[in-house]
Sequence to fold (794 residues):
Amino acid sequence: MTSSSTDRSAPARPRSARQRDDRGRFVAAATTTTSETRATAKATPRRMDPELAAHIAEHIAEDVGDRQVVAAPADLEPLPRDRFADRELSWLTFNERVLELAEDTRLPLLERVRFLAIFASNLDEFFMVRVAGLKRRMATGIAVTAASGLSPRRVLEGIGEGAQNLMARHAEVFHRDVQPQLADEGITIVHWDELADKEQQRLHKFFRKQIFPVLTPLAVDPAHPFPYISGLSLNLAVVVLNPITGKEHFARVKVPPLLPRFIAVDDRGRPSAPTPTQKGGTQKSFVPLEEVIAQHLDHLFPGMEVREHHTFRVTRNEDVEVEEDDAENLLQAMEKELLRRRFGPPVRLELAEGISPRIRELLVRELGVVEEEVYELPAPLDLTGLNVIADIDRAELHYPPFVPTTHRQLAEVESAMPGDVFAAIRERDVLLHHPYDSFSTSVQTFLEQAATDPKVLAIKQTLYRTSGDSPIVDALIDAADAGKQVLALVEIKARFDEQANISWARKLEEAGVHVVYGIVGLKTHCKLSLVVRQESDGLRRYCHVGTGNYHPKTARLYTDHGLLTCDPDVGQDLTRLFNQLSGYAPQSRFHRLLVAPRTVRSGLVERIDREAAAARAGHEAWVKIKVNSAVDEATIDALYRASQAGVSVDLVVRGICALRPGVPGLSENIRVRSILGRFLEHSRIYAFANSAGPAIGEGPETGPEVFIGSADLMHRNLDRRVEALVRIVDPGQIAELLDLVDASMSPDTATWILQPDGTWERHDVTADGEPAADLQAVLVDRHRRRPPGAGAQV
Fold:
């Protein structure tokens, strides 16, 4: 079946796919009949255009030179059909965990405000991309039943019910809990009529000078059609009356997105745009911008009587699709697609509670949405704007300050000047753990020193996301200006960073950098730097392989790992991979890398099967994985088979997880944990007890085999992106990564535990009744206590 319209077996009133348990938590488990449970479920493969597949094969071909297939016993029973949780519903449970952080009264107050804003921003993107994509596939008749067994219509119903409940809960946390506590701290979010007369008078002046010139009222009548409502914009629906004719008219006023979401009013009644540098004690109140505009609608419609006004917000399909095999110039094609994105169809309409039925009906009709896409919520709408409140400088209401430190192997002596990164890498491989290890004094310094070092001949760099004032881009430009050979592989299809990356691509090209956009049909998501340096004994290649983007700002907020090395095998691997990405090198083979889309999935499944074989032979066997999401059915099935063979499987998954742990006969030996907190967990680690067999490159012949890299266990990472995992060979670094996963799984660590039914149980108290440890706080404290020589850096 391709869509719900052809699903004749469904009952007239299907049971909702979105369930709650007895504690009101959301359940993301699949729903199937008993007769289905022993059948084998297979995900519908994604078919690629043959010409596009052939084009990709010219760049990256399957590396089968060292592969040894580990045969599974022939008498294995089929896996149950209901073994996968639904991807989209699992994502909702992830955002529910974010909301639980906002609800946690033990966290600093302004950090709870931040989590409220993060929840809202997450949900916006989910509707813009995932829900929009599902609706588009259903409309075109290409939607298929999910691996969970749910039809597209059932998934959409589950999303609607789950999102409705979560959005209502989100609003309740803000209004009934967080907002009153903010008021207790002297930070009030107020309505216009709660302001003193003096404050209102000053806001009148502020409106006339700072807001009124930016506003554009748009009437709706036979000469003025219903205006286009841009995605995520906040709007006022206004009804005015002509006192002469007695006729009512409808108009729309867009709340300008470039103005501050809240207007700050200090303790002397002076309004201003909120700024993080202001002390919270001087900012008495915050007024939603739309309320200030609403109180001055008579300025926009002079001579008319304002009868009513209501706020609303539209979410549109803002994913982009470029037929790369038909695009002669990918850069120009992406620019055209970004322009089209502005006019994607609506997928969600948010209305402030209390809206009149006639205005509600008008908006639903004119915007072309259905009732299931309408969400009525308490004002103010768009709580992503709470970030300006969370930025208030009140140290006692934030997490304790943390300054990243220079990695001990890059700072042998304490100094204000950066050390020689190349000399440090020649001594040993350096395993970085951001944000605890400073990005600026490691990766950034590595590239900056390469740009100015006269011995450096060439730099090759991937750029997936970077900051607006990127020192990485500046270093590449400086290197090109110095006459070095510089290659930048810019991924202009990085979602919601497309326009920024197009700008950087043009800037780099103008500076003489060789800019390429990767392989048609694939996103380049791997995080790689390669520096070629002339030394006394010949050319030496210095490399960085990471799990996170070359983005100095997010490097302070995301947890990521990176490897700095001059190992000849890794240098040869990166040279070959960059040649694949910029030219044609389909027969390249790698020593210490697994590279998607050809060898990451097969390499991981191969190693999982090896653990299963070891367990069947009576040997120690385990798998430890830390990822952002785990959805890929082939890998999950391999983990199920390994569990059945007796392999201990530990997974740390921040976001989506389609695997169901602890199911008798299927996954009793699988445990899944999730950690959310101050930093966004972003690193990917894959570890296996046994490295005997098809080991990659140099390293222990037996004992743990450990990789880090950019790939998650998702179809997009394994099939439609260029990803790279690098094998870690230093015993101390292997132990460090294993310790991190073990600490994440420890009963003494605060986590969420995935249950067999798809619910997540929060674990924040140990068996002794003590508060469970915040692992991120433990790591922050550990880095603060580093021995002398590890200089503090921002």
